Amino acid sequence: MDKIKIIGGNQLNGKIYISGAKNAALPLICSSLLTEDKVILKNVPQLSDITFLNSLLENLGLKVIEEDTLLESHTTKKYTYQADDIKELVAPYDFVRKMRASYYVLGPLLSRFRHVELSLPGGCAIGARPIDIHLSSLEQMGAEIEIKNGYVIANARDGLHGAHVIFHKASVGATCNILMAATLAKGITKIENAAKEPEIANLIDLLNSMGARIEGKNTSILTIEGVEKLHGATSTVVADRIEAGSYAIAAAITHGKIELINANAEHLQQPLRVLERMGIEVIEKPHSIIINGIDKHIIGEDIYTDYYPGFPTDLQAQFMALMTIADGASLVTESIWENRFMHVPELCRMGANINIHGHASAIVRGVKKLSGAPVMATDLRASFALVLAGLAAEGETIVNRVYHLDRGYEKLEEKLKGVGANITRIKETD
Ligand code: UD1
After folding, report:
1. Are 359 and 251 found together in one domain?
2. For residue 116, how far is its CA from the centre of ligand 1 (angstroms)?
3. Is the CB of 120 inside a 6 Å radius of any atom of ligand 1?
4. Same domain, 28 and 12
5. Helix spans in 61-151 (H)
6. Which domain holds residue 125?
7. Longest alpha-carbon distance in the chain
8. pTM to 2 decimals?
């Protein structure tokens, strides 16, 4: 298993190109299952989650063509997908186990082919992660669903029909799945308490350009009028706001200055305001954000994770890394996932002073310095928090289980080296 070695203490300066968002690309890719025509996606990040999803879908019969293309003078991936010969309607355990977002096949396959079997996603390191909202909404739309031998088996013999569904939580995954399912359902579907993340707007734009009729973008009430058929279209994956937020902390924690090229400040309002309150200068430009931590005195601040536009849970761990070296105390409250403080014991091994209260709150009392250590995390964002701590720490940090980082951070070492970090990947066979 690969490891990452960081020698901390370098001030990071320069520019980092922000990639397309993994969490936007995943549902966009699955929406290609809704039509027999070609769906072309640009700015798709090169990540193991994308490779997993592509191979799951190729296994079903989806044609996938990968090409390099230039986007604002950066080489990015363009994919052409065509679902004109789908032979399999089963997403097996081996794929779903590796990537929970495999559940995005549910809505499109059931809607277009009237049948789907999905290995039931289990819990994962950050929480139980149920899919009850996805399933109960599909049932309201006419699906018959049974759970057998660890699989969700869904049938819609007469096709799906529109329904009025009210989510008990503003789930991102359920919003995308039900949006995709409703595009080809008979009649009108109304989703109340839909999620409003920018990745959902990206999906709505693609679906509408494929001929879907969706209204209510960026609001919590979405109305979808089903159509008979969708056609091909082209879309560009929106910039990854979580990657941008993560590298913003890299600038702040090393007292450096980084311009996040292609980042969209509008999608990061809460985290940027928190950074400012922590003493970091933030300059928002039309197609980039400058984060300036040079000679800044970092001060503690509280955060509470919430649904978009609230503070994103996917940036909680990275901000906590910054809080460990801030002046004063910070209170972190995690409201989305029940088990998302796995980075805390590892940060403490590097000298941080953090106390967890119950499942949802942690008090971080800033220390003068962190010191390097061998560490590991059990999820993607927590792993990046450890990289950040390593960048600021004295001495050598080895981050184990790098496969988590490869799921969500494109060209991680290259990007950090490019702004002056001392970071190397140690290739190891188990
Ligand atoms: C997505 C993101 C993930 C992020 C999360 C919250 C992807 C691939 N992943 O995950 O990085 O942390 O949004 O911003 O886009 N819930 C239920 N029942 C359901 C579905 C969800 O109770 O059927 C609950 C969850 O337990 C959680 C909350 O709703 O407490 C939000 O989950 P959800 O938005 O669905 O997360 P994902 O889409 O899986």
Report:
1. yes
2. 21
3. no
4. no
5. 93-98, 106-113, 132-140
6. 22-236
7. 65
8. 0.97
